[in-house]
Amino acid sequence: MSHTAHIPSHRKPRQSASKTALRAGVAGGVLSTIAVAGAAGPAQAEPVTQTIEMPTITSGLSPAVAASAEATQQVALDLETQAHEDAAAETAAKKAKKAKAEAVRKAEAKKKAEAAAKARAEAAEEAAERASRTAERTTLSASTGSSASSSSPSQSTSSATGSAASIVAFAKAQVGDAYVPGGTGPNSWDCSGLVQAAYGSVGIDLPRVSQSQSTFGTQVSLSNLQPGDILYWGSAGSAYHVAIYVGGGQFVGAQNSSTGTVQRSLDYDMPTGAVRVL
């Protein structure tokens, strides 16, 4: 037996092939895991890189978003302003319509009041005219005595000739026309306007008003009238009414607004005097 036979050996025992293979497999698995993790690392980092870049994209869109918001706000303001303007216009239109209706109502009321006042004035004028004629006749009768009051006007039926005939024809042609204060024709007259136009038809220029016409020409008696003579009511120079004697005890005159232009008998309203122009 060798003297070294009982001395244990200090060398490490050899590992079996199976253990070596196991260790190699473990090591390979770890390395594979590391390799897989290393390979997976860049793929997982990509979203992180994109996430970091998002603020830059968002900041780039902010002015556009702000501009869009500002435009939307301006549109809203414009719509609100338009709504206020439309409401104001509608209110103004309603006020204008109401004011127009009120103005029309007042105008109609004024027109009716004026028409009523005119009718009252015409009625008063006619009443005053008749009263004045009565008073004038009474005064004239008293001043001239009983002989003058008993005399009767001419009832001559002789036909007018020449200019007188033309004047009479003109006057008769106007019978039925309206009486209008200040009227000078062709379809409405006052008393002196009719007389002036009748004489104007034969080229004779008479004064415009009754007072002047009652002294234009020669004074004649009511008992010696001829067709074409101017009849007047009141005193010569202050007459308030005139007409044209047309013969046959008749006269034509623009009397008043109620009767218009008429042909009447002298007995209807006896004149106080007459003048002869022809």
Secondary-structure blueprint of this entry?
Layout: H1 17-150, H2 162-173, E1 178-179, E2 188-189, H3 191-200, H4 210-213, E3 218-220, E4 230-233, E5 241-247, E6 250-256, E7 260-265, E8 273-276
Helix pairs in contact: 2-3
Explain briefly what this protein structure is.
Helices cover 58% and strands 13% of the residues. The protein has 4 helices and 8 strands. It has helices spanning 17-150, 162-173, 191-200, 210-213, and strands spanning 178-179, 188-189, 218-220, 230-233, 241-247, 250-256, 260-265, 273-276.
In words, what does this structure look like?
- The chain is an alpha+beta fold and 278 residues long.
- It has a domain of 126 residues: endopeptidase domain like (from Nostoc punctiforme) (endopeptidase fold (from Nostoc punctiforme)), CATH 3.90.1720.
- 58% of the residues lie in helices and 13% in strands.
- The strands form 2 sheets. It has a 6-stranded antiparallel beta sheet with strand order 3-8-4-5-6-7, sandwiched between helices. It has a two-stranded parallel ribbon with strand order 1-2.
- Strand 4 and strand 5 form a beta hairpin.
- Helix 2 crosses helix 3.
- The longest helix has 134 residues.
- It starts with 16 loop residues before the first helix and ends with a strand.
Query: Based on CA inertia axes, which overall geometry fits?
Result: rod-shaped
Highest CATH level, the class of the domain at 151-276 = Alpha Beta
Strand order of the largest sheet: 3-8-4-5-6-7
Terminal CA distance reads 207 Å
Number of helices: 4
Mean pLDDT reading:
77
> How many strands?
8
Please provide the ordered H/E string of secondary-structure elements.
Answer: HHEEHHEEEEEE
Largest sheet: 6 strands, antiparallel
The helix content, as a percent range, equals 55-70%
CATH superfamily of the domain at 151-276: endopeptidase domain like (from Nostoc punctiforme)
| CATH architecture annotation of the domain at 151-276 | Alpha-Beta Complex
Structural class: alpha+beta
The radius of gyration computed from the alpha-carbon positions, rounded to a whole number of angstroms, is 64 Å
Describe the oligomeric state of these chains in a short phrase. single chain
